[in-house]
Amino acid sequence: ISQHWDVFKYVTEVFILVPALLGLKGNLEMTLASRLSTAANIGQMDTPKELWRMITGNMALIQVQATVVGFLASIAAVIFGWIPDGHFSIDHAVLLCASSVATAFIASLVLGMIMIGVIIGSRKMGINPDNVATPIAASLGDLITLALLSGISWGLYKELESKAYVNPLVCAFFIALLPIWIIIAKKNAATREVLYSGWEPVIIAMAISSVGGLILDRTVSDPNFAGMAVFTPVINGVGGNLVAVQASRISTYLHMSGMPGESSETAPRKCPSPCSTFFSSDVNSRSARVLFLLVVPGHLVFLYTISSMQGGHTTLTLIFIVFYMTAALLQVLILLYIADWMVHWMWGRDLDPDNFSIPYLTALGDLIGTGLLALSFHVLWLIGDRDSDVGD
């Protein structure tokens, strides 16, 4: 729906922000969920004092990461939007910066609160937070972030005409809060380390997702492929969630046998063969098969929902569904294979895969998903499946 609002028409770079911000939220919330779940399971959140310290440190940490990465994502969107077109608008650049930083900050705050509630709640009820928190973070993250980005960018776009000073003020306000969050995060030993070392995966992941956003922006700007905007978050979200679950499982499996960097029998694989990833009797291979089989039923539910809500601008013909499913299956197949290799590789390099692999994998999911989907739409157009409204 939001793709028809004025701001999305006139400032199309907002589309480049979409995968970058969705990816960012997924990464921050998923790593927050996995950090807090681990802390809860080890018993570091049992007394009110410890609980309060963990909460304030982690919340401050994700505010720092969200503000900085939101700011960088808007710069990437401005550059990616400016290079192909050649015209640069300072108003639009400031609008993108304000929308991106405000969305990242508010979404982090809301999602962080929800995560903490879920983790404390599941501890009280005796459920393992690992099984509950990550999927909730992933699914709510997309919904809340998209809603906020659409609403905030639309509101700020309206303000441009009468009050041009509002956008720079919004930018300045959130950036001015940064030192406060940094001081709070530094006080906690658990978050201090991530404050220094946790940047690389989040920023590289944002850059990879922005390329996916560029593909989305280029494709959706073409009136023949406008329908793609509805399907992109779905294919990327499903792929990213499935691979995050698999990465987290392999990582847990490795953690049971020692510490990162220790060469146990489980980790020396340089590049696994596809057979060992998908067809061996190994416990991780079994879960890869299960996750792969979830793709088709999962997407059929989403496609049915989109068509029944009249959300898409593409009639669901059989040939469209075949192409869409092929893209989705290919994406998950590639991601599960990369996850198997990447988690073992990071483990061998003395990096904790929990903190490092999920951002890269979800970002690659965005890029591969958007790329394959754009390709499917182009092929469908070429072979003449131009149903009455594929291009509406």
UniProtKB/TrEMBL annotation:
Keyword annotations from UniProtKB, A to Z: Ion transport, Magnesium, Membrane, Transmembrane, Transmembrane helix, Transport
The keyword Transport is assigned to this record: yes
One Gene Ontology term, aspect cellular component: plasma membrane
Subcellular compartments: Membrane
Pfam family, one: MgtE
A molecular function (GO) term: monoatomic cation transmembrane transporter activity
GO biological process, one term: metal ion transport
Every SLC41A/MgtE integral membrane domain range: 18-152, 232-375
Membrane protein topology class: Multi-pass membrane protein
UniProt similarity note: Belongs to the SLC41A transporter family.
Task performed by this protein: Acts as a magnesium transporter.
Name of the featured protein: Solute carrier family 41 member
